[in-house]
Specification:
The complex is a heterodimer of chains A (118) and B (106).
Chain A: E1 3-6, E2 10-12, E3 18-25, E4 33-39, E5 45-52, E6 58-60, E7 68-73, E8 78-83, E9 92-99, E10 106-109, E11 113-117
Chain B: E1 3-6, E2 9-12, E3 18-24, E4 32-37, E5 44-48, E6 52-53, E7 61-66, E8 69-74, E9 84-89, E10 96-97, E11 101-105
Parallel strand pairs in B: 2-11
Antiparallel strand pairs in B: 1-3, 3-8, 4-5, 4-9, 5-6, 7-8, 9-10, 9-11
The chains are: A mainly beta (118), B mainly beta (106).
Chain lengths: 118, 106
């Protein structure tokens, strides 16, 4: 079955960086892409960007451009999202989600990784 | 593209018919998805392309609409349906979500 397993919770100081991983199983990793979505405490969902696992394509949301890096390692079937220059506003649960060819339909999600900036 | 859901919350009895509306700030054809999120869990895709039910999703869920106005209907609310529901447009980037509709027990 399709599974996305994310890295654990992190606590970071303001100004630091965080790197969240998302390991995929149960499907052909390099036939799909991964989108990253975050959710601040008690708030709604915010899309951060998409990366292809089969090409060099990526599409970060303009809000995060220059501050976010998304990578995909096909050898380990793992996607990564790094966010730099953290502030308290970045405190959130970060989710990875499978995204077929970047179409924006998120059919499988990771369990989420809580990042606390304090 | 801004997505606006209504209502923001509702209370209903088990067995009730529930309707949630999602409006897009511009036409998005049928590029609209619906997700269900339960507390402490990741969202779950219920409906894609405005009306296509995902595999394994009960048939009491249905979606309709196009361009700027969309509807999610739960025909007979069940105890496991109490959750927050989000619409999301997949027409263009950045992908955007509605603010959510929390469905609570009456």
């Amino acid at each position: 079955q399709v599974q996305l397993v994310q890295s654990g919770a992190e606590v970071k100081k303001p100004g630091a960086s965080v790197k969240v991983s998302c390991e995929a199983s149960g499907y052909t990793f390099n036939s799909f892409g991964i989108s990253w979505v975050r959710q601040a405490p008690g708030q709604g969902l915010e899309w951060m960007g998409w990366i292809s696992a089969y090409s060099d394509n990526k599409n970060p949301a303009q809000k995060f451009q220059g501050r976010v890096s998304m990578t995909a390692d096909t050898s380990t079937r793992t996607a990564y999202m790094e966010l730099r220059s953290l502030t308290s506003d970045d405190t959130a649960i970060y989710y990875c989600a499978r995204d077929i060819q970047g179409r924006g339909n998120f059919d499988y999600w990771g369990q989420g990784s809580l990042v606390t900036v304090s | 593209i801004q997505m606006t859901q209504s209502p923001s919350s509702l209370s209903a009895f088990v067995g009730d018919r529930v309707t949630i509306t999602c409006r897009a700030s511009q036409g998005i054809r049928s590029h609209l998805n619906w997700y269900q999120q339960k507390p402490g869990k990741a969202p779950n895709l219920l409906i894609s392309a405005a009306s296509s039910l995902q595999s394994g999703v009960p048939s009491r869920f249905s979606g309709s609409g196009s361009e700027t106005e969309f509807t999610l209907i739960i025909s007979s609310l069940q105890p496991e349906d109490f959750a927050t529901y989000y619409c999301q447009q997949s027409y263009s980037t950045p992908r955007t979500f509605g603010q959510g509709t929390k469905v609570e027990i009456k």
